[in-house]
Design a protein that fits this description.
The protein is mainly alpha-helical and 193 residues long. It has one domain: Four Helix Bundle (Hemerythrin (Met), subunit A) (Up-down Bundle). The chain is 63% helix and 3% strand. The chain is built from 4 helices and 2 strands. It has a two-stranded antiparallel ribbon with strand order 1-2. Strand 1 and strand 2 form a beta hairpin.
Length: 193
């Protein structure tokens, strides 16, 4: 079951009215130049294709995500394009079509215009809802106190091992100066070198 605000629920009655109106149109019998008749016939075919293939998929996607502005916007833009083409057909019908056909297409155009406006309002509501949600989330985010800065214990500076200084090698004590004469212990006399 579709909700009241669903895109397809908004559009379907006017699309049904439009389909019925298109079935009674006979542009080939209108009092208009052949080029206008052909263009109008081509526009009617385009409207049929859009109603039967493109628009149902867009509306179903919008129904699946009813608060998605992007999905509603895709459907809305398609309805806008459909309305523009229908407006051209209705203008030609008012000038060249018999009264019954002209009245049927005018009624379908007015119905589609109302549905288009309602879908636009639904799109606007979804956009406002998303804006409000963003503002609430931003306010909630600002209200959350920033996390306390983590207490970081300073790491002790690495202890430098004192360099072992090599003790200076003791220089051998200078030898006492020897006399030029050495004593000969055996004979008690000294000999010179």
């Amino acid at each position: 079951m579709q909700s009241q605000g669903a895109a397809s629920a908004i559009m379907q009655p006017s699309l049904d009215t439009l389909t019925q109106a298109l079935e009674v149109l006979r542009p080939e019998r209108w009092k208009a130049p052949d080029a206008i008749k052909q263009e109008t016939g081509s526009n009617i075919d385009s409207i049929h294709r859009d109603i039967q293939t493109t628009l149902p998929q867009l509306l179903a996607t919008a129904d699946a995500a009813p608060n998605s502005v992007s999905q509603l916007l895709l459907a809305y833009r398609n309805v806008e394009a459909l309305y523009d083409v229908l407006l051209r057909v209705a203008q030609v019908a008012n000038l060249a079509a018999p009264g019954q056909q002209s009245a049927a297409i005018d009624h379908a155009r007015a119905s589609l215009e109302d549905a288009r406006r309602t879908l636009g309002d639904r799109l606007n509501s979804a956009a406002l809802g998303q804006d409000q949600q963003v503002h609430r989330l931003q306010a909630a985010l600002r209200a959350v106190p920033p996390p306390a800065a983590p207490v970081v214990c300073p790491t002790p500076a690495p202890v430098k091992k004192p360099r072992r200084r090599r003790k200076p090698v003791a220089k051998p004590a200078p030898k006492p100066a020897t006399s030029t004469q050495q004593s000969n212990p055996q004979n008690g006399t000294s000999a010179a070198h």
